[in-house]
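Structure first, sequence second, as always.
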């Protein structure tokens, strides 16, 4: 088990997939971080040396990820609701926010605008 930012990862997991498990890091960001630290794309977490793990941890600690990013998104939605912006009202009602049709096919928007994102 290798710990990156306090999160345990199995040795046989790809480094790219391990980075993508952090909220706010996707495919492109993980590829850029790996390229910045000269890690080849199919490298496993177990193959990392201690210094590489420390470098990755230092890089990730400077980024807005996990709880900080969740808090930022929640505060942005709360700000929109407080100023009574159209997007904020749509979030509050659980309706589609970005102009999707509401006559049919609103299941995804209702699923995404549930209580846990309302703040």
């Amino acid at each position: 088990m290798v710990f990156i930012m306090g999160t345990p990862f199995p040795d046989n997991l790809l480094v790219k997939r391990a980075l993508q498990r952090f909220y706010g890091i996707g495919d492109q960001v993980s590829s850029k971080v790996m390229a910045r630290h000269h890690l080849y794309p199919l490298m496993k977490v177990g193959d990392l040396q201690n210094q590489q793990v420390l470098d990755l941890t230092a890089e990730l600690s400077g980024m807005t990820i996990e709880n900080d990013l969740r808090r930022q998104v929640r505060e942005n939605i709360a700000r929109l609701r407080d100023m009574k912006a159209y997007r904020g009202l749509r979030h509050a009602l659980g309706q589609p926010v970005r102009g999707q049709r509401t006559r049919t096919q609103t299941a995804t928007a209702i699923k995404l605008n549930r209580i846990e994102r309302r703040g």
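Margin note: Helices lie at 15-20, 27-36, 50-61, 67-82, 86-93, 107-112, 115-118.
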